[in-house]
Write a structure and sequence with these properties.
By secondary structure, the chain is α/β, with parallel strands linked by helices. The protein is built from 19 helices and 20 strands. It has a 7-stranded mixed β-sheet, covered by helices on one side. Strands 5-4-3-2-1-14 form a 6-stranded mixed β-sheet. Strands 18-17-16-19-20 form a 5-stranded parallel β-sheet. Helix 4 links the parallel strand 10 and strand 11. Helix 7 packs across helix 12, helix 9 packs across helix 10 and helix 12 packs antiparallel against helix 13.
Amino acid sequence: MRDGFIKIAAATADIRVADVRGNTENIIAAAKRLAAEGAKVIAFPELCLSGYTCGDLFLQEPLLRGCADGLIRLAAETAGLDCLIAVGLPVSVDGRLYNCAALVCRGEVLGLVPKKHIPNYGEFYELRHFTPGSDGVMYVDLAGRRTPFGTGLLFDCETMPELTVGVEICEDLWVPDPPSTALATHGATLILNLSASDELVGKNAYRRSLVASTSARLVCAYAYADAGYGESTTDMVFCGHNMIGENGLILAENADLTQNSAVTACVDLGRIVAERRRMNSFDIKRDDSFRRVSFELEAEQTALERYIDPRPFVPSNQAELERRCEEILTIQALGLKKRLDHTGCKTAVIGLSGGLDSTLACLVTVRAFDMLGLERKGILTVTMPCFGTTDRTHNNALILSQALGTDFAEINICDAVRLHFRDIGQSEDVKDVTYENCQARERTQVLMDLANKHNGLVIGTGDLSELAMGWATYNGDHMSMYGVNASIPKTLVRHLVAYCAGRSEDKLRRCLEDILDTPVSPELLPPEEGVISQKTEGIIGPYELHDFFLYYLLRFGAAPRKIYRMALKAFDGAYDAETIRKWLDTFYKRFFSAQFKRSCLPDGPKVGSVALSPRGDWRMPSDACRELWLEE
């Protein structure tokens, strides 16, 4: 339960219609098994103590009395379990019958939530037996105890502030204005749906989309427990389609609907809370329309029994990855197209190093020129070899320009940099930051002046990961007139270039593949025996780790402790704990110290949910303290 993680379950126990004693025993056994496996919240189906398909037996006193007794027995026999349990049963109140969910924890029935929307169409005839639950809360007598009853109930976990549980029942989800909307806007982070949804051709796909979209719209976790085998098949068949959704994703779902089973998932309620906090349009109401009931669970650490993607910026599905690449390239190109169109510029100037970032910027610029119907010769690609340039990157820059049909210029800046060294008293033998940055700033000066000369724009090549880490020379490669890669993380840059390579003719494809195979480097230090000596990831750490850290820092405001824990899971077998801790510390130190570079970024298009533009997503003081983050 620490760090916002909690394991929940949606379960279908074996039942027989109207066999309340047997059903209760099976539900208790299932609850004990799931609790032993670590589930802290367990939802069972609608009317599961009696069976959903009892028909007019619901009007019989023995069945109703048996269900009340069964609920009391279930509460007593699960009193030692550290979990919240939701079960369905018919409840008689003031001479009316209600289809209810009972919430049970540590031997106590916390409340009864009646179904609000009663279906009476097609194969359903619930109004024959049940009365719709009305808004508000009253108290009913249950085994001599005053028990809250009503649709206006929310259940707060005192030991896990992120956990507030709301309940709706089956049809409630399918109506235009489901109760879950009010539940979520009053603070529910987990919605339980106790359901008895019969199986029809194609219905499971719609049911799945309904759960996924509801969890996305309400920014919540959603557990859907469905009636299954054991219900009467006089007119319907039930398959126990259990699901757990989280903010648009189905985390767990029955693989085999031919037998009753349970699904469990480790949901991240911390992520839910963070997302709501970020969305100022998600307005949490605090009024008297809901009665809040408290319960306690042991505050222990939940095992991370969920997949944590080590590359959150990169879709794991190949078809989705290709679709995403095409979409991103189009967004980048459209951004540049508008800027060129607005300024009237028909020339773009790009410093082409033969590395990944400048290659992507060039590919995007070619797209923008093609969209505008401009000649590609209007793209001036400039290679500026100096002390660290290798033959490999130099040749790839030339081949790339030729294959794309752009104009090409080579300007060796060695003499200009040496002259500058002399002017500022810098020894060429001292390979320090001045030695490196003089080269980067000289290149930027050349590009800017060429843009002036040709009435063009300098296209920035730096990516999101470099901006996060401050891995750019201030007023050097940090500066441009439009930065097309500004919101593209390094792990995604590689896939975008690979996507283009897979759709290119042989000469361009071979060049792009070699660029992909080249170590990431600014090439500001002399090569060793003709091979790149300065490898970025050996200095600041692996970009796949930094992109992971960046995603959870910016997207969900996660604390370093939580990010570290998730990284251990995501990169298990790839990096040890000490390595992850080392680079996480490096990330935070560099991220905080580099804000001054991000505060004056050139314009560039946002393409994903994480960006660092000071005009859009990230407004941070350049002199903010980092100690709180480094102390975790």
